[in-house]
Every structure is written in C-alpha cells, then in structure tokens.
C-alpha cells in the first residue's frame, strides 16, 4: 500500500502543470480549485513560462492587477512630485513642474511595466515579485534631493548594492533570521501607521473642500461617511472570505459616496492621452531639458551613497511582509509558487537601474499593492503580473484614469483596504503566544522610538540572542546567525540613518 502511495506522489512530482490541471467544475468550491492550482504549479526559474503550459489566467487575477495599478499610480505621483519640488529648491537652474512629474510617471508606467511586469515576472521568472515602489523612502525624497543626490546616481548605487546582496543570498538569509514575533510586530506597526495616515489624509481632504471651492457649507462629513460604509463592506467581505474584492468594491463605493454627497466637483480630468519622450538622452543629456541635471558626477554619487545603502537595507523587512502574506493565505504544498526573496531582489535591482536610465525617478521595492491582494485572492504571480503591466501601459497612454486613481477618496481607500488593514491583520495573526508577543511589543515600541527598519534590525539581534522572545531560539542558530549577521544589519542601518539625519535630535553626519 505504501509503495502505491509513494509511486503516486512520485508521478505527481514528475507530471507537468498542464498534465495535473483540472477544470474548476470538478471542484466543490472555487477556493478548492484555486488552492489546487497553487499546489500543482511548477514555475520555471529564469526560463520561459507560457500560459496554458505553466499557468492560467483567472478572473481573480484582475483584482490584484487593478489594485496594483491604482497603488503604483498613487505612489509614482507622490515620488515624482517630491523629486520635482526638492530638485527645484536645491538647484537654481532647475525648474520642474507638474507637467514634468506627469511625464515621468508615464515613463515609469510604460517601460518598466513592459520589461519587468509582463516579460520578467510574467514569463521569465514568476517567483520574482514585481519591482514596485519603495513606500518608506517617499518621505525622504525631499531630503535626498536637498542633500545633492542625483536620481540616476542613486539608482545605479541601489541596483549595484541590491545585486550584491541577492548574489550572496543575503535577502533570504535576513528573512529566515526574522522570527514570527519580530515580523508580526513590524507588520502591526506598518499597518497601524499607514492606516492612521490615510484616515487623516481623507479627513483633511474632506475638511478642506469648503475653502478650496468657496462653498457656503462644510463637507467634512464626507470622509466619515466613506470610511463608515467601507468598514461595513470590508467586514462583510472578510466574513464571506472575499477580501480580495476589497479594493475595487471599496474604491467604487468611495467614488459613489463622494459624488452622492457633493464632493465630486473636486475630481478634475486634466491628464490628456499621450506618450512621453522615451529617449534617455532627452532626460539626462543636458541641463536644459528633461531632469535638467545632466549626467551624474562623483559628487552626486557621494551624496547618494548613504540613501542607497538605506534603501537596500530596508528591502528585507519589506520583502518579508509580502512573502508572509503568501504563506498565510496559500495552502500547504504551494511552496513552489512563493516569491523568492533573492530573485525578487535581483529583479528590483535591475529594474531600478533600467527604469531610471530611460528617464524614470522611482525608488524600487517589492510591489506590495500587487502582492498583498494577489495573496488574499490565492493567485500566483505570473498571470496577474501580465495583466497589471498591460493595465499600467493602457492607463499611462490614455492619461485620464490617472486622475481618478490619485483622487483622494480612491487613493486613501485603496491603500487602506488593500495594504494597511491586511498588514495589520497579518501581523496580529503572527503573534500567537507569549514569546512572540514580547518580541512584537518591543519591535513596535522601538519603531515608535526610531523607525520600523532600525526597530526590525535591533529586535532581530535581541531575539536571535534570547534576550527577548523565545529563549530556546539561540540554541538552534549558529554564531553567525546569532551575532555576526544581525549585528551587521543593525550597524549598517544605524550608520546609514545617522548619515542622512533620520535619527530624531541628531543632525545628519554627511
């Protein structure tokens, strides 16, 4: 009997995805079908993956594709506006306005979407998550620009450091050394602070409508109504196991309520159809057009160095959070479709250099607004990546949808239900006992004192040495895993933050 079972398992291991695939009609539930798809997929790493042979498109793939398009348009717009403001303030000859920011967003949504969403993560390596936006770095962009950094110099350094770390499997090593308690605390903090920020932004938007449009009455209640209805929708979706529908349904509800309550006059369609200049020489070739900075020199690289180190140091906790979402939502036996941290780091590094070289300005990291909804929807990377890349290209060319995605009700609600609330929930799920709750609590406390990256590095060091959390954990780790690697991570993060002035009360050392 045992020999028969072993032979059956061996045949399953050897059979291809197309041979093991069964139609959805043969399963009792849709979830059962989706979970079976995850178990039988065998993505080819750095090879050609084809629809039908290696993966299939399902209508659930539209959800993370739409969510990722909304999220990345919002993030890119924030990044390019920050670069334009900071560089214009730093350099007397630089004058970058709103039109510049829009064109750069379009560049970032066209070339990287084709190369790194559709081709790379869709067809070449479906275990590498897409290269999206490095959200925690957005508040620093003004400081980066004023420090004299050059976007292209910064991108080259980030790409080089990322490739080195991925080559030595540093990303996956750091993820494996992060306990569930530390990871849970990190996710809780990021989810809470992100949700708080978006709720505050939504109320500020609604409260400012009266003065902005010279109204005789206040529309401050619009934000409360939007949030209240969306809490109900999100709770109902969670109850019935349909949270992956949260971004499209909640965004539609936000738009309908905003118009219904009289706030629709704030939505303006100003981004006309078009294609940006895709010639790298136009963007970097002189100080008269494009970024108006010319090619970077040695001083630009020196000014960019600490920020590049910090960006790459912050990748591991970011990647960790996204992989955890897959692990929490995918069934056992689906390990082959989990995102590979080191491959994702390779993709992000190359995407960082190429995307900026052709004229972009994004700072890249694992694409959370895609991965989190995809994990909740129980979908692997490739099909959704192809749809997402296609949507980004369509939106960039048409133009007008960009105005909808960056409208405050859509932006805040999409980020709330698609990123920050799931982060908060995932973090709470990981804190399962006293030892993990202790590590999580100290991680959250340290994040409030300093910032989430330094808190992650510090609590990982303490946790791996048994000073907090599981006292038995150090016995299973080598000296390098307990002392050397966590200490290096902490020292590098601390040094980079001291260099750029990220520690409260201490001026920048460089």
Write up this protein.
Keywords: Membrane, Transmembrane, Transmembrane helix. This is DUF3360 domain-containing protein. The chain crosses the membrane at residues 62-83, 104-124, 144-167, 174-195, 215-237, 244-265, 298-316, 381-400, 406-428, 440-462, 482-503. With 510 residues, the protein is mostly helical. α9 (180-212) crosses α20 and α11 runs antiparallel to α19 (408-430). The chain contains 22 helices and no strands. The longest helix is centred in the middle third of the chain and has 33 residues, at 180-212. The radius of gyration is 23 Å and the shape is globular. It has helices at residues 2-14, 17-20, 30-40, 62-90, 98-124, 141-146, 151-167, 170-176, 180-212, 221-239, 246-260, 280-284, 298-313, 315-329, 341-357, 368-376, 381-398, 400-405, 408-430, 434-449, 452-464, 479-500. The chain has one domain. It is 67% helix and 0% strand.
Short description:
By secondary structure, the chain is mainly α.
List keywords for this structure.
510 residues, globular, mainly alpha
As a percent range, the share of strand residues is: under 5%
**Spans of at least 5 consecutive residues with low confidence:** none
Overall mean confidence score, pLDDT: 88
Oligomeric form: single chain
Number of strands: 0
Principal-axis shape: globular
Major sheet details: none
User: What is the helix content?
Assistant: 55-70%
First-to-last CA distance: 70 Å
| Content-based structural category | mainly alpha
Radius of gyration: 23 Å
Number of distinct helices: 22
Order of helices and strands: HHHHHHHHHHHHHHHHHHHHHH
Domains counted in the coordinates: how many? 1
